[in-house]
Amino acid sequence: MEIKPGNIVQDDNLLACSEQHVRAVFKMLESQAKVILSGGLEAARLKLWHMPLFEAAKVKEAFFAYDRPEEYDALVYASYVLRSSSWYRPGKARCYILVGFSGDSCEKAEKRCIDALRLGFYPFAMFYRDQEGRQVKDVEWRRFMHTWCRPAAIAATAKRLGIGSK
Q1: Helix 106-118 and helix 72-83: axis angle, to 10°?
Q2: Is pTM beyond 0.70 here?
């Protein structure tokens, strides 16, 4: 697969690729400025050997995905891996959090957002869309999104909860 120069990697499956391909992508990124891994990386696939690659490429931000509650343990593991590196700083590790799927509630979704914050990820809530593209956006969910997809509101919530930079 050809690797073309660029500084924004939108591939959510990058960490699922062969080690050779991952290393080649990061080698290309070393010559780029303001590198952002925006695809929503799978936390369970992050390994310690990836961290020197993040450092060498000077990755500005890396987005991970927290789509289902059962992925929490993988997010805990990724937090450990990220924090073991000199790359990690508050705000560099970000996390898309899927909300509004069947069986979800604002209370459950908020807990996931707060849990991500406590792990050192800056959360960004994203509404689930069903096969037809529909979303549940009632007044309660709109209020929830007002807090969990606006950086200033997230920062204020973190401060209110006493979740500081770790």
Answers
A1: 20
A2: yes
